[in-house]
C-alpha cells in the first residue's frame, strides 16, 4: 500500500522530510478495524512530531491522526462497527498514523462519519472536535443539559481547528455566550461564522477589550494557543471559581499559585489520553463522534474544512505542514484520494 512516512526529522521544505513509500497492508485483530483511508486532515501535532531533531528512525514512521474511510476488515472482537461502514476518527498517537492507504484503529475511538459531509469534510473533524468536546464538557464540566445562557466562554485562538469546533459546540449546543480571539479580518470573520458572539484581538490587551464588551470576567476559558503567553491574562479575566482548560504544552513551569485566590479549576486536555492509556472509558470517543455525526447531519454543527488538496502524497503533505507551521490556519486543511 502507499504511505507517507519519515525516517529523519527535517524542515518541511526538505524533500526528505516526508517521503512516499510502499508498506505491507496490516491485519486487523482484536478490536481493530482495517480502514481504507479516503481522506486525512493535518494537525499541528503532525508538524510538532516531524520538527527537526537529530534522531533517525529504524523503520518508516507514518504520521496523521484524522481520517475518514471505509472499513474493509474487522478483528474478531469488533462489535460497534462493521465491514463496509464509512467511518471517521482521530486515532492513537502511540500507533502508526493514517497517512497510508490502509490503517488500523481501535473501534472504541471510531464512529460512523456524518452522511452529509464528503470524505474530506469528515476527515477535518475528529481530532479537533474531540479536543473541544472533552475540554468543554469533561474537563471544565460545562453542563450540556443545563441553562448556560448566563455563562461566558473565552476561546483563545478561535479560528484554528480546535477553536472553530469549541465555538460551535459552546454556542450552538450548550448555549453559552462565546467570545473568541482572532487577530486578522479573515480570522475574525471565520470566528463569527463559527458562531462567536464577539471577537477580540489576542495581540491587544484582552481584559480591556472584554471590559468594552461589558464583561469584567468570564466563566470559562479554553486556551488553544501559547499557554505561557496567555497565562497572566487568563488569571486576570477568569471569574472567581471559574475554570480554565489548556491544550498546548507550556514551555516553562506555570505559576499555578496565581490561580489560588480565585479558586480557579485548571485542567489540561490531551485528546490522546484515552487511547494512550487504554482508559476504561475510551469508548466515550466513539459516543462523542456518533453524537457529533448526528449534530452535523441535522444541521446544528458545520464542517470546518477550509482548504482541500489532492492526492494524499508527500509533496502535498509537506506543503500543508509548511502552511500549518505559519500558525495562521483558519479551520482545517484536508487531503483526499491517492
Ligand atoms: N491537547 C490536545 O489534545 C490538542 C489537540 C489539538 C490541538 N492541540 C494544540 O493546540 C494548538 C492549536 O491547534 P489548532 O489545530 O486548533 O489550531 P492552529 O491551526 O494551530 O491555530 C491557528 C490559529 O491560531 C491563531 N493564533 C496565532 N497566534 C496566536 C496567539 N498568539 N494567540 C492566540 N491565537 C493565535 C491564529 O489566529 P490569527 O490568524 O487570527 O492570529 C490561527 O487562526 C496547537 O498547538 C496544537 O498542537 C492540542
Q: Report the CATH superfamily of the largest domain.
A: Medium-chain alcohol dehydrogenases, catalytic domain
Distance between the termini: 10 Å
Rg of Cα set: 20 Å
In terms of per-residue confidence, which ranges show pLDDT below 50 for 5 or more consecutive residues? none
Strand residue content? 25-35%
Compute the number of strand runs: 16
And the CATH topology of the largest domain?
A: Quinone Oxidoreductase, Chain A, domain 1
Helix content: 25-40%
Can you tell me the number of structural domains? 2
CATH architecture of the largest domain: Alpha-Beta Complex
Order of helices and strands: EEEHEEEEEHHEHEHEHEHEEHHEHE
CATH class assignment of the largest domain: Alpha Beta
How many alpha or pi helices?
10
Amino acid at each position: 500500500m502507499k504511505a507517507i512516512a519519515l525516517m529523519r526529522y527535517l524542515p518541511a521544505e526538505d524533500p526528505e522530510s516526508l517521503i512516499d513509500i510502499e508498506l505491507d497492508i496490516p491485519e486487523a485483530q482484536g478490536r481493530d478495524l482495517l480502514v481504507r483511508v479516503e481522506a486525512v486532515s493535518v494537525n499541528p501535532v503532525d508538524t510538532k512530531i516531524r520538527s527537526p531533531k537529530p534522531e533517525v528512525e529504524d523503520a518508516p514512521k507514518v504520521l496523521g491522526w484524522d481520517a475518514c474511510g471505509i472499513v474493509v476488515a474487522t478483528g474478531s472482537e469488533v462489535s460497534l462497527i462493521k465491514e463496509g461502514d464509512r467511518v471517521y476518527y482521530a486515532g492513537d498517537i502511540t500507533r502508526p498514523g493514517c497517512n497510508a492507504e490502509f490503517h488500523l484503529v481501535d473501534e472504541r475511538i471510531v464512529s460512523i462519519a456524518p452522511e452529509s459531509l464528503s470524505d474530506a469534510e469528515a476527515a477535518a473533524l475528529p481530532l479537533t472536535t474531540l479536543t473541544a468536546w472533552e475540554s468543554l464538557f469533561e474537563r471544565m464540566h460545562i453542563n450540556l443539559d443545563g441553562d448556560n445562557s448566563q455563562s461566558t466562554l473565552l476561546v483563545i485562538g478561535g479560528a484554528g481547528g480546535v477553536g472553530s469546533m469549541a465555538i460551535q459546540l459552546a454556542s450552538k449546543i450548550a448555549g453559552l455566550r462565546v467570545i473568541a480571539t482572532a487577530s486578522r479580518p479573515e480570522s475574525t470573520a471565520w470566528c463569527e461564522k463559527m458562531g462567536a458572539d464577539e471577537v477580540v484581538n489576542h495581540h491587544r490587551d484582552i481584559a480591556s477589550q472584554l471590559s468594552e464588551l461589558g464583561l469584567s470576567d468570564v466563566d470559562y476559558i479554553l486556551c488553544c494557543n501559547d499557554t505561557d503567553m496567555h497565562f497572566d491574562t487568563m488569571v486576570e479575566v477568569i471569574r472567581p471559581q471559574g475554570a480554565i482548560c489548556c491544550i498546548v504544552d507550556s514551555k516553562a513551569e506555570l505559576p499555578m499559585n496565581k490561580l489560588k485566590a480565585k479558586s480557579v479549576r485548571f485542567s489540561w486536555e490531551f485528546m490522546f489520553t484515552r487511547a494512550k492509556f487504554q482508559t476504561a472509558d475510551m469508548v466515550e470517543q466513539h459516543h462523542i463522534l456518533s453524537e457529533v455525526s448526528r449534530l452535523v447531519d441535522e444541521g446544528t454543527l458545520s464542517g470546518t474544512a477550509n482548504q482541500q488538496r489532492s492526492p494524499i502524497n508527500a509533496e502535498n503533505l509537506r506543503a500543508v505542514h509548511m502552511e500549518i507551521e505559519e500558525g495562521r490556519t483558519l479551520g482545517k486543511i484536508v487531503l483526499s484520494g491517492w
